[in-house]
Amino acid sequence: MSEPRHMHLGLFILGTGHHVAGWRLQEAEAGAENWPLIERIAKTAERAKFDLVFFADALNTGPNVHPSVMVRLEPLTLLAALAVRTTHIGLAATASTTYSDPYNLARAFASIDHLSGGRAAWNVVAGAFSEAAANFGHASHPPHDVRYAIAAEFVNVVKGLWDSWEDGAIVMDRATGQFADTSKMRELNHKGKYFSVKGPLNISRPPQGYPVIIQAGASETGRDLAASIAEIVFAVQQDLEIAKNAAADLRTRVVKFGRDPRHMKIMPGVCPIIGSSEADAKVKLRALGEFSDPVAALKVLSERLGHDLSSYPLEGPVPELPQSAIMQGHAVTLSALARKHKMTLRELRDYAASAMGHRLLIGTPEQVADGLEEWFLAGAADGFNIMPPWFPGAFDDFVEQVVPILQKRGLFRTEYTGRTLRDHLGLPRPAHPRVATNVV
Amino acid sequence: MHLGVLLLAAGNMVSGWRLPEAEAGSQNLLLIKKVTDKAEETKFDFVFFADGLNSFAGMHPSMVVRLEPLTLLGALAMTTTHIGLAATASTTYTEPYNLARMLASLDHLTGGRIAWNVVTGAFAEAAENFGAAKHPPHEERYAIAQEFIAVAKGLWDSWEEESLVMDKASGKFIDAAKLHVLDHKGKFFNVKGPLNITRPPQGYPVLMQAGASDAGINFAASIADVVFTVQQNKDTAIAFANRLKAVAERQYLRNPRHLKVMPGICTVVGSTEAKAKAKLAEIGSLTDPDYALKALSERMGTDLSSYPLDGPVPELPPSTIMQGHAITLAETARRRNMTLRELRDFVGVSMGHKLMCGTPEQIADEMEEWFRDGAADGFNLLPPYFPGAFDDFADHVVPLLQKRGLFRTEYNGRTLRDHLGIPRPDHPAKERPISSDRLRQASMT
Fold first, then answer.
1. Full-model pTM
2. B280 CB neighbour count, 10 Å cutoff
3. I want to staple A387 with a disulfide (CB 3.0 to 4.6 A). Which of A18, A413, A440, B183 is the partner?
């Protein structure tokens, strides 16, 4: 059977755009608390048959952070609102395993999966910013490897809680008065290193079995965690060869964990800057650069490199820095890029300001489509997480000009063929462990 | 008067879902949406979703599995336009930063229609789902709750109004002078702030509370805008309301009119009294006695399964959970000389709340009497099943209340605070407190 292989497309919604200065463009509408705008963008993505929309998250803020993340609607309540205003598109959000409770988070995602009829996805993050610790009564952020160990156990607990009720456990038999078939209920009784959770969860099994699990770890531990649990991996590579190697490495690790590598979709972030000609696109990028707030831009770069860079000379070379304990994927990728192109700190700052350190695709719609196709066919990507520099125009351009080219080339769906996010991604619904055991 | 409906979607009565005309299921979004739409058409102040953080075989069918309330409110935010949306969340098993954010986000999504029913987490079983060795004792839970609320309010005040400037020309995104870092260091919480969402449209979401113990009454008097209460007897209810408002006024210097006392009532409406009673008997006959005894045990704070059903209701030590229910039920049993079986069946139909069974006129009369005599500022309706029992109330009792001038016929505001007639709290940074009405007038001139 030779089904056409399609790429997967996600839209990474950041309310003021991915470029730090995107909101300043005359045509931009902005605001991470701007519900009508967010709803409109999500519906555009659904019309374009995107696999999912994605909302990142963080648990801290301050006056100098990227404007899209300074104040924003809370992602889980936002997904719930979108669940009833959309019908097909997947709804993904970040939630931290360091600063939430497995019982609460398992419930919220199960609830969103029920509300959306099986369209929820959870981007598992171990909580990258150490500033968050101060909002949760912790003296300090746990170290990198501890955070990943917590994350691995957290995800296990959450899956166990999602399995509290077998499918069909709620019978509601009026005649006999049996509401739930409690032989299909099980207590988790988890006692681990970081969590003790008895269960059962007070919501039945999500329509997708488990919501789709997303992960973006790039460190050694992060890649292992991704390989063991992730069904989508958000990646940050800039260079095709490096991306191919990273994808091959991840797929090898997936096999090591006994999983089918086809059930892990690697989706690098891409920031498209589209123009009627390549020169026109470059003019747009330059205009954005001129609007940039240098303090916010340097803060974005500092976060990605894991060091406060405000005291380094901007015209000097990008300094050699010790290994970052946060966002290692970005740190490695950006350092390599700076070395390769011999960039000054100012140049790297302006580059990172455009797409928060992700790959830029600048040019005509054909050139952007070519850039996506090349990576897809080379095995460096199963799809892409699209990061428009501003909203809604830059995304509308992508939908109106690039998506039709991808569709004409047979690289992207023209209609949804299923109803759940697992359907869109071609991922199987995980069987309940008891059922799975019985089958064997 | 104010009206809310507690949407326990398999019904308030443990067996309500078994009626042929009942639709059921706390995961049934279509039913929940239908009831919410009806409540909005009827101009209710709010719909309310209770919550718990545990489940077990034999739990009340409305609670054994259910949609998570905060995400549910996010969905209902989009399907409604005026009605208030209230949900329970625990101060014992959540983080102030996470909860303050979610509630603020919901208040933004609804344009100011959110209420938070603050519970300290009544069921000890929840502790085991959160790695806690044991449920903190009653007094400590209230101390935690008190500090939690102070932190949440402080986080909601992270950004003054109009701190988001978004001036494209100058590139000024925020007015940093209007950003406040909380830096809370307390006995139970250390939270630095600021919160990553602007001040909720209502300033703070409406706060609801249902404490009935001494600690609970104190807590409610200090923070609650709406107080849920379990009352069977009008005089006791009047005394409770008076005490609560007196504590609010004297001890916490609050305007007692800004605190709305709303007893729970379970209504069974019939075109004649006989028909209402027949309906009640029908529901009663479907009640699973084990569910009912479990519900009674929870309310009394003691496992009653080993006591003789036909003996008197035993004298029990004071409950450390659900004290309002325990006190009210014990008093009711004493007053009516009830056996344990009788009290069990009573709880089976009403879950311990006041049962109003009769014609629309009879129910409206009793509600009016409680309202006029100061026993209630409004009522929290607990229909025995959905949607029929709620429709009966909405279609037959509410019009009588409206005709008597006791209940609104149109919404005349957009936020839940508007519906309840309680002012929007100013940001503490304001030098002089100005009411939102005066602000509106000032901005119009």
1. 0.94
2. 20
3. A18
